[in-house]
Amino acid sequence: MDHLYRNNSKHRELFKVDTRNLIQQGSTELSQIQKVGKCRWKQISRCSAQPKIDSSSYFDMALLTGATSGIGWELAHQLSAQKIPLIVTGRDQKKLFQLEKKLGCFSFRADLSLEEGRKKVMEVILEKRPTLMINNAGMALYGNFLSHSLSEQMKLIHVNADAIIELSYIAGKTLKSHGKKGVILNISSIAGEFPCPGMATYSAAKALVTNFSKSLDYELRSDGIRVLVTILGQVKTNFAKRASKNKSFRRQEPAISAKLAAELIFRQIRKRKGVRIIPHYYSVLLPIALSMPSQWICKKIFRSINNRIG
């Protein structure tokens, strides 16, 4: 843990800067701060938004699913930057090799839509006993329920629901049986808060993830194990393009970058915040939307999804 403090010594010094006091003390000290330039001010802003570092915020091992693209890719870099020993998994073997080479992490290929893929991840959890488990892998399908094959719908359930339950079970059981504290973080979606015609199975699966995570967090908290859930809105990744099966895709709503989403998720982990909605403006819009008639919500969502895929 000492190396984390050494690596962040400059940042910890910036924490000590109280700009208001400097203004009161006069322009002399302010001029010293200004010399560091715009880049330094960005560092100050970034650091001031981060929670203070303490040993309980770090983990002896992290396991991340869905690491080969989008938010998973950025989370892998976030965890590596914090010097947390890392195991990553995904379906793209080439991208896994790239992460291994760049980050020095351990990787293995696993398709969570298959039972053997989920068992492979469970075996790694039992062997390595990660104190941070991030269930990030996910998939969606845009379009009417009956326009997709049953096998496609079940594949979505296996990735978005079965894997969450199975991996959370093994991770929680392993931590508890060895008397270890830790964090399980599950990625959910704002789609799980509404009925979503046009992505009915995905919406149902994410509703399960959100409520399952909240319930499990209550059950395991007394054992020092936290189960957190991130409820995502629009993020700039290839997720929606894959959901539309590479058809022409038009994003309607404003979206944040995958890098920013990963930074906010890691901040949630460090703060042990049970539920976080990203981007934040969804937390303002959600209560308003939920107060509207269900049929009105369905109409708006169905139209939005159809507009995305042309």
Largest sheet report = 7 strands, parallel
- Could you tell me the CATH topology label of the largest domain: Rossmann fold
Radius of gyration: 21 Å
Are there runs of 5+ residues with pLDDT below 50, and where?
1-56
Query: Any idea what the shape is?
Result: globular
In which range does the helix fraction lie?
A: 55-70%
User: CATH H-level name of the largest domain... which superfamily?
Assistant: NAD(P)-binding Rossmann-like Domain
CATH class assignment of the largest domain: Alpha Beta
CATH architecture call of the largest domain: 3-Layer(aba) Sandwich
What is the string of helix and strand elements?
HHHHHEHEHEHEHEHEEHEHEHH
- According to DSSP, the number of beta strands is 9
- Counted by DSSP, the helix tally is 14
As a percent range, the share of strand residues is: 5-15%
Structural class: alpha/beta
Number of domains: 2
Distance between the ends: 51 Å
Could you describe the 3D structure shown?
The protein is α/β, with parallel strands linked by helices. It folds into two domains: 2-49, no CATH class; 55-308, NAD(P)-binding Rossmann-like Domain (Rossmann fold, 3-Layer(aba) Sandwich). Helices cover 55% and strands 13% of the residues. It has 14 helices and nine strands. It has helices at 2-7, 9-15, 19-25, 27-34, 37-49, 70-81, 93-103, 115-128, 150-177, 200-220, 239-243, 258-271, 281-290, 294-308, and strands at residues 62-64, 86-90, 106-109, 132-135, 182-189, 225-232, 235-236, 256-257, 275-278. It has a seven-stranded parallel beta sheet, sandwiched between helices. Helix 2 packs across helix 5 (37-49), helix 3 packs across helix 4 and helix 9 (150-177) runs parallel beside helix 10 (200-220). The protein is globular and about 50 Å long. Mean pLDDT is 83; it is low at 1-56.
